[in-house]
């Protein structure tokens, strides 16, 4: 499997003289896999996701996407990158424009990138709704007229309208009830089958266990361990993982 991302010595320092949010992080993402990123609050997971999507460019080290360092990409390359790599946030309400109807929200990015002719809109938006399990009758709704789980599905449909190669889910199921969580997990597994590579960031070990091919544990800005899901859960090395596994979590 070829690598989509290759990250070398990624270091992020937000305030001069204070601690590093990320410290010499090295990791890769293989095409077709689901990579789980696990760690406690404040450990640096979102900083990693934001840096991998250039929402944060105040980093040192290298983030290579398909062999090209993100900050050295020219305008055209960055535009392609922003289509190919999508980020889904924890709070779908704040990431959806409250003044736009669902169909316009879903198609906005695809229009900006010139991906779809006007006459193909209806077909595309219906197939995207179907993929994420939203009813066609929701097309004219505003975000406030959707439940939390439905809003998260809408955010995924909007990302899918760009036919991305990679989707990073940053705590995307954290605020959802168990049924919605399960539905989003199933969507992610279906995405993997259709060739989309995914990163799932969470502090929820059962969720990461169900879905990931490989896991990285990141705390205090450092990678504490990395390996195939079954390997690191059966013989954990980090104190963090040992503690969770010794608590009430059962594999
Ligand atoms: N823009 C910023 N400016 C200053 N400090 C920041 C900024 N973003 C994050 N931090 C700090 O960097 C550290 C890592 O934060 P980050 O959000 O990456 O952690 P996280 O693992 O995603 O946490 P959570 O699971 O709670 O979302 C934290 O101490 C946070 O306060």
TrEMBL record:
CDD domains recorded: ABC_NikE_OppD_transporters (cd03257)
Origin: domain of life: Bacteria
UniProt-recorded Gene Ontology molecular function terms: ATP binding; ATP hydrolysis activity
SUPFAM superfamilies: P-loop containing nucleoside triphosphate hydrolases (SSF52540)
Family (UniProt): Belongs to the ABC transporter superfamily.
PROSITE patterns tied to this protein: ABC_TRANSPORTER_1, ABC_TRANSPORTER_2
One annotated GO biological process: transmembrane transport
Pfam families assigned: ABC_tran
Keyword ATP-binding among record annotations: yes
Keywords per UniProt: ATP-binding, Nucleotide-binding, Transport
Domain ABC transporter: 7-245
Name of protein: ABC transporter related protein
Xref: SMART domains: AAA
UniProt-listed InterPro entries: AAA+_ATPase, ABC_transp_ATP-bind, ABC_transporter-like_ATP-bd, ABC_transporter-like_CS, P-loop_NTPase
């Amino acid at each position: 499997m070829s690598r989509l991302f290759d990250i070398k010595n990624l270091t992020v320092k937000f305030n001069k003289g204070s601690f590093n949010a990320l410290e010499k992080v090295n990791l890769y993402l293989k095409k077709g896999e689901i990579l789980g990123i696990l760690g406690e609050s404040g450990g640096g997971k979102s900083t990693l996701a934001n840096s991998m999507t250039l929402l944060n460019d105040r980093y040192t080290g290298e983030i290579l996407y398909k062999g090209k360092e993100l900050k050295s990409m020219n305008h055209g390359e960055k535009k392609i990158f922003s289509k190919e790599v999508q980020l889904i946030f924890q709070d779908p309400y704040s990431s959806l424009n409250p003044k736009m109807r669902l169909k316009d929200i879903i198609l906005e990015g695809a229009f900006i990138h010139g991906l779809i002719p006007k006459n193909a809109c209806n077909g595309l938006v219906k197939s995207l709704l179907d993929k994420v399990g939203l009813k066609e009758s929701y097309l004219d709704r505003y975000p406030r007229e959707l439940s939390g789980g439905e809003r998260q599905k809408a955010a995924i449909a909007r990302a899918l309208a760009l036919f991305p190669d990679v989707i990073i889910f940053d705590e995307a199921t954290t605020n959802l009830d168990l049924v919605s969580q399960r539905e989003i997990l199933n969507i992610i597994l279906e995405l993997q089958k259709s060739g989309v590579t995914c990163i799932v960031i969470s502090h929820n070990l059962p969720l990461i266990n169900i879905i990931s091919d490989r896991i990285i544990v990141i705390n205090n800005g450092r990678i504490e361990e990395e390996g195939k899901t079954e390997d690191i859960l059966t013989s954990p090395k980090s104190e963090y993982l040992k503690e969770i596994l010794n608590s009430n979590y059962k594999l």
